[in-house]
Amino acid sequence: MTDKIEYDVLLVGAGPANLTLAHRLVDLADKPIRIAILDKAKDVGGHLLSGAASNPRVLKKLFPDWDKGEIPIQGICTESYLSVIGKRRWENVPSMLVPSYFKKEGYAILNISDLAAGMITKITEKAEAKEGVVVDVYPGFPAQEIVYDGDRVAGVKVDNTDGDLADICYAKVTVFGDKGFISRDLVSRFNLRKNPQVYSVGVKEVWETAKSYEGKIWHTLGYPLEPGHLGGGFIYGCKDNKLIIGMVMGLDSPNPNIRPPQVLQDLKKHPYVQGMIRGGSLVKYGAAIL
Ligand SMILES: Cc1cc2nc3c(=O)[nH]c(=O)nc-3n(C[C@H](O)[C@H](O)[C@H](O)COP(=O)(O)OP(=O)(O)OC[C@H]3O[C@@H](n4cnc5c(N)ncnc54)[C@H](O)[C@@H]3O)c2cc1C
């Protein structure tokens, strides 16, 4: 990066929200436009943890052939369950009693990290095919601070991860998709939040299993969370015998000694989950605040 750069649109964070916007801007562009996308991860998608069951409505709008290899997906849900579990019990709630939110048949099973990488490729390909449309992607460049011009956001101060001198990236429009890492400054400066923020933590592992569970989704309630602790488990069966197992739990647990990674281990020790992962191997793991 040079010392001062100016764009029409600056997107802070290359998560699915900002990448959707970038994709749409490139699609709509009928005159020259310069777009910059910054992300703190060294590779786009590198800091994204979610294994998501995603309603294909938006995917279809962006990528009409989403289910035919246009973007990386892990499978399409064919069976979904809401399960109420105890230390040894596992009961799937009868379908007619399952709230529609937990019915995921037809949903895309995504690895958001792969999706982001795939979206960047699509966006840059589309931009290259359009005269005057420039999309510059800067992975490994965390935005450090918002730069104001009076009450207007003029851009952000950027630092690269190797510790070089900070640059300033200016733009006519700056969009923050950084989940609040630096945009919380905007929230307090312009008094944008009416309701208090609720925080949860997600812990997740990806397993390679002996048997394929592709297309199957379980959401769990109850064990191993303590009564009064908001949250639940999720298990997503992906292609290539991959199985995503995770827990999301509120950070306002009544028990201050709760250890989210241990909660996930307790879910994995459940006989039902053991039946899925026994003989398999752990591929990767991670945690994120959401
Ligand atoms: C364990 C887990 C399971 C989930 N399961 C589901 C699910 O099943 N279905 C579903 O719909 N959703 C799910 N979610 C939620 C989903 O992942 C988020 O809603 C979605 O990723 C939000 O997208 P986003 O683009 O707003 O932000 P994010 O995906 O968080 O992207 C933010 C990006 O900004 C970058 N960034 C942050 N700060 C800076 C900075 N200062 N400078 C530059 N870049 C920065 C980050 O590196 C990241 O790439 C899950 C989340 C987790 C953690």
Automatic annotation (TrEMBL):
Name the record gives this protein: Electron transfer flavoprotein-ubiquinone oxidoreductase
A GO term, aspect molecular function: electron-transferring-flavoprotein dehydrogenase activity
Cofactors: FAD
Lineage of the species this protein comes from: unclassified sequences, metagenomes, ecological metagenomes
Top class in the EC scheme: oxidoreductase
Keywords, in A-Z order: FAD, Flavoprotein, Oxidoreductase, Ubiquinone
Its EC number(s): 1.5.5.1
InterPro entries, alphabetized: ETF-QO, ETF-QO/FixC_UQ-bd, FAD/NAD-bd_sf
Residue ranges of every copy of the ETF-QO/FixC ubiquinone-binding domain listed in the record: 199-288
SUPFAM superfamilies found in the cross-reference section: FAD-linked reductases, C-terminal domain (SSF54373), FAD/NAD(P)-binding domain (SSF51905)
Organism field: hydrothermal vent metagenome
Pfam assignment, any one: ETFQO_UQ-bd
